[in-house]
Design brief:
By secondary structure, the chain is an alpha/beta fold. It has 3 domains: 132 residues, Rossmann fold (3-Layer(aba) Sandwich); 64 residues, Helicase, Ruva Protein, domain 3; 123 residues, Zinc Finger, Delta Prime, domain 3, CATH 1.20.272.10. It has 17 helices and 7 strands. The longest helix has 18 residues. It is elongated, with a radius of gyration of 25 Å. The model has no long low-confidence stretch (mean pLDDT 91).
Length: 333
């Protein structure tokens, strides 16, 4: 059962005895666990019938014993276990789920990990619980996730604004959703979130960000690239060079891969390189300016300056801003 199905069933009050929520991305698990904690029982029922345990502080046997109790003056009791990934032995849980209490909702949050897939316990948990295993979104998937997230809340967002948020926040969905919540407070419902909204309320510059730098490099816009680099150099704490190099490395690796694609249409590039369709066109245009040999040289330049930014093969008197300017000059010439 996937995340949407689980949440839809919960909203329709279709409950199951055991929920096992695990995997790399805690955002989806937290939404489900929080929904159960807040909505299954009334406030009056929660006092006697809702318990939250922490796996690192609680033996699994204690949780199982609590799960076998009957609810008091309610149809269900809710037991939530947070940080259950600290449990090493899941055999008692596997035994319990073979015949769970039907009046208990037991929610196991096994964050950032999953049980050993080779074990009998894993197979029992997978087959006898509402099992959700989440994976981190790839960074190229985040803009589309943002667009769907805001659409579900009766907003819209421009492709550039969603790309700005993705570039700045990465694929930490909890962080992304928190920042979007800030925007929802100041942007009128039903309207479109723009780069200006993001800049004013999140603190991400629409003109000075890693995405705009790659756009300048890809189009060989020397003036724009130098303006961004000068800004980054004077604000190096907000734009650490190793982080920028990592971003540029991903960009030029994708451009390098472009030359080996069989389908070089915008749609084929978006699919083959794992890009948002909004971004694919700029890659097609940039690849015309950077051939395979030149891209191979640029990747070498990035590795060289990554080492220099970390204090290797570079004088201690050279600033990060100077290194960044020098590196970008070499890339563009």
């Amino acid at each position: 059962m996937d995340y949407d199905q689980i949440l839809d069933n919960l909203k329709r009050k279709i409950y199951h005895p055991v929920y096992f929520l695990c995997g790399e991305e805690p955002y989806f698990s937290d939404i489900i666990s929080d929904f159960i904690e807040e909505n299954v029982l009334t406030e009056a029922e929660k006092g006697f019938n809702q318990t939250v345990f922490y796996g690192k502080d609680t033996e699994i046997i204690t949780v199982i014993e609590a799960s076998r109790r009957f609810p008091m003056m309610a149809s269900h009791q809710v037991i939530i276990v947070k940080e259950a990934q600290s449990w090493k032995n899941l055999k008692p849980l596997a035994s319990y789920i073979s015949a769970p209490s039907k009046s208990t909702l037991l929610v196991i949050n096994y964050k950032y990990a999953k049980p050993d897939g080779r074990s009998a316990e894993y197979k029992a948990i997978r087959d006898n619980t509402v099992y959700l295993e989440t994976k981190k979104l790839k960074e190229y998937q985040v803009p589309a996730w943002i667009e769907n997230y805001v659409k579900a809340r009766d907003y819209a967002i421009t492709p550039q604004a969603s790309q700005m948020l993705s570039d700045f926040l990465g694929n930490d969905l909890s962080k992304v959703s928190n920042e979007l919540t800030k925007l929802f407070l100041v942007v009128q419902k039903g309207s479109r979130i723009t780069p200006d909204d993001v800049e004013r309320n999140i603190g991400i510059s629409k003109d000075y960000n890693p995405y705009e730098l790659t756009d300048a490099l890809g189009s060989k816009n020397f003036l724009k690239a130098n303006r961004i680099v000068n800004h980054f150099g004077s604000n190096h704490n907000a734009h650490p060079m190793p982080q920028l190099i990592g971003f540029l490395h991903s960009y030029f690796i994708r451009l390098f891969k472009y030359h080996f694609l069989t389908d070089k249409s915008e749609k084929g590039v978006a699919s083959g390189l794992g890009l948002h369709p909004y971004v694919a066109k700029s890659y097609v245009e940039a690849a015309r300016r950077y051939g395979k040999t030149r891209l191979f040289e640029i990747i070498g330049i990035l590795r060289e300056y990554d080492m220099k930014s970390k204090g290797m093969e570079s004088s201690s008197t050279v600033t990060q801003g100077d290194l960044l300017k020098e590196m970008v000059y070499k890339i563009m010439h």
